[in-house]
Amino acid sequence: MSEESLINIKINNKEIQVDKNLTVMQACEIVGEEIPRFCYHDKLSIAGNCRMCLVEIEKAPKLVSSCTMPLMDGMSIITNSDKVNAGRKGVMEFLLINHPLDCPICDQGGECDLQDQAMYYGFDRSRYQENKRAVDNKNMGPLVNTIMTRCIHCTRCVRFATEVAGVPELGMLGRGENAEITTYLEQSITSELSGNVIDLCPVGALTSKPYQFKARPWELKRTDSIDIFDAVGSNIRIDSRAQEILRVTPRANDLINEEWITDKVRFNYDGYYQQRIDQPYIRKNGTLEPVSWSDAIKSLKQKLKQSKPLSLIGDQVDVETGYAIKKFMKNFGDNNVECRTDNQAILQNNVESIRFNTPLTEIENADLIIIGGTNPRIEAPIINHKIFKAYNNFAEIFNIGENLELNYPTHQLGEDLSNLNSENLQKALKKSKTPLMIIGSGFLSHIQDVKTLKALFEFSYKNKIITEEKNNLNFLTPHASRIGNLLLENTTSNDCQPLNSINKKDFDIVLSFGSEVIANSEYENLFKIYLGHHGDEGAMKADIVLPTPLYTEKYGTFVNIEGRPQEAKKCHNPIGQAKEEWSILKELSNQLSLPYEIESFEDLRKELSKNYPELLFWNNVISVQKSNETSENNQFECCKPTYPISNFYMADVISKNSITMAKCVEEILSKPLLEKSA
Amino acid sequence: MSGNHPGLSNNFIRSGEKFEWSKENLKEIKKIISKYPKERKQSAVMPLLYLAQEQNKNWVSIECIEAIAETLQMPKIRVTEVASFYSMYNSQPVGKNLIQVCRTSPCWLRGSDKITDTICKETKCAINETSEDSLFTVVEVECLGACSNGPMIQINNDFYEDLDQESTKQIIENIKNNIPNKIGSQKGRKSSENA
């Protein structure tokens, strides 16, 4: 902050120096004066319509709403005078005139801004004797429940839909007493981030439909965790009571998800308890039959003795488990663990070729964004929000691949990577100062030759996507386990088409750690062991099924696309007889007399931190060596992308089993296109 | 009261007919949009709502809103917000002539009740209703701002002031017979000069 941008002001007769670009409310917050508010939210534009944040400013004739008032040099602000209190009390009384005061049956009760602030500024009885107004509830889709009589018209939800979610579908109709918040023609909100309006709503007007009448906030146990349904690593908080998860809400983390999470992680928790594998099964005469753990281990021992197993790592496997698998599989030789089950191409020993190299907070500063082979709206809605921010900062967006239904306009460049050399793009790139490129697994899983990957790097050097200071060439995977396991080198030595190039005849057993690819026909002749938590395609085809806990039932570390390890904590005990993978592998090692010196989860972490210390430095991005990939040719392979996820609400075993997600598919995705573009 | 005014309902409905801009209106729209900077096209939403209402038999249907949203490339909900905010945009079908009778104190003291009765009798429709031939819709409104010339009514975009039962009857009669009416004071006053 330069000297010039500082001004002297007084807050409650305390002199301070603050940045002149702040508002009165922000300045008050700096000195720790809490200002009540309903409509103001730091991530949204300023509306100034609730009038709760009144303060007194010396020489101003009337009270001023502090959220809209810019600072001026020499301003003297008073936040605690009788006049201010009387003003706020008046505003509160007006807000409560048409508020139903049905707190005992309201889901927001206990965490309601209006309730809390009424404790300070409310009046203990009402002077209002007229009829209260009542408003019809509105349909906002299968996720957001509306009780519109409670609405105080702060318009946070309207601003969120327009500015953050990028779907201008919410609005306030009418005026005065007739003002009502609604979606256009009461259609469902078509955003992947729509659940966040529930957290934004300061009263109980917008609440969660699945959580309706389930619990009070003070009964819930809070567990900090990580969103594993995409690779962004959004910080979440899991609220549970006893052995049941009742809701999932975001934790603010400005470096990653700000204050938002996707609807998938927020609402698919009912899927955690559906179709669970609760005990071991062995296939006998063609059908899977329940067996005891000791029997299962016994027959596994028989199978694994003098065999050549192959391990496939699924999309939601944490780093600790990944390390245990790596350790176990070492006994059987090299090149027998693969986490790239979608054939993602990488450059070995080059972390820059697997991760999202731009810090997530910097995406919005790009002035040109190339999206290739990925649909960020469904593969990483948080990233998509940041691209939308960049678009609002006048960035130009180019798309290579299919025509996508994004919430911002793009220049369509054709379907394959060779379009990077197209004239339009080259012209725009020349003008651009901070270009950014995102290559998704749509392309990566098709690349046959490393030359293409190297050409991508070459292209980036040439067009200043990668410079000395920054690397804006990004690779986007939708799978939470991927980066962590690639950093553990849980992968075979082929750069491209890793899974396809594994010769299945070299192996006789395949161990799948939550990977569904074993249902494919090429694994038909292998003996299949499935370790997972949900009975889906993979478990159906397996010969032995072993139950393992979900990410909420054990401690684990997940590395997000930036390469930032974060810990997901244990919320409750595993369901049924599920056992953590490392302990299953320990049991097996003991039976097979293989070395495996891990006695407890702490041992596992200790050993992991010895060998890969950075993976347990939570919340810090791993250090990445600058690569220098050069390539003579600037030719890209011709391949059309296949997008890894086509249905946002049903992309993995958990959300496939969620009833709420099924409702979303029915009510949001199946809407005819015409209606959708409201 | 206000809830029954066709301009103050938040419930927009479909007319069931396709709405396409007429040729004259397309020309007019071009002219209107050219008044605003290129990237602020949506500033033209209010004049366009007027045009749509005029073309669509005096009311704004969902089809109109969607046509405007497309013309101005703005979200439909934003057009709906504007249309629902102002009472001059009718969200419900109304008769060809929307008669708004002022009933606020100055007009009421000067006999607006009698005017209302006369209108209801002549048009054969009750307050807040549309006549059978859809020629008239009658609503009572609060002050329209011509207090010194009360009692007064507004028919579509025009004021008729200094009314008595006779002149009111004549105005309705003229509308029925397609004879143009004298706008403003019916007693020959110029604006609000002393009577």
Could you explain how this protein is built, in words?
The complex is a heterodimer of chains A (about 675) and B (about 200). Helix content of chain A is about 25%, strand content about 15%. Chain A has about 675 residues and is of the alpha/beta class. In chain A, strand 11 (about 235-240) and strand 12 (about 245-250) form a beta hairpin. In chain A, helix 7 packs across helix 17 and helix 8 (about 320-330) runs parallel beside helix 17 (about 580-590). The radius of gyration of chain A is 28 Å and the shape is globular. Mean pLDDT of chain A is about 90; it is low at about 675-678. The radius of gyration of chain B is 18 Å and the shape is elongated. With about 200 residues, chain B is of the alpha/beta class. In chain B, strand 2 and strand 3 form a beta hairpin. The chains are: A alpha/beta (about 675), B alpha/beta (about 200).
Low-confidence stretches of chain B: none
Provide the β-strand percentage band of chain A. Answer: 15-25%
Biggest sheet details of chain A: 7 strands, mixed
Terminal-residue CA separation of chain A: 43 Å
SS class of chain A: alpha/beta
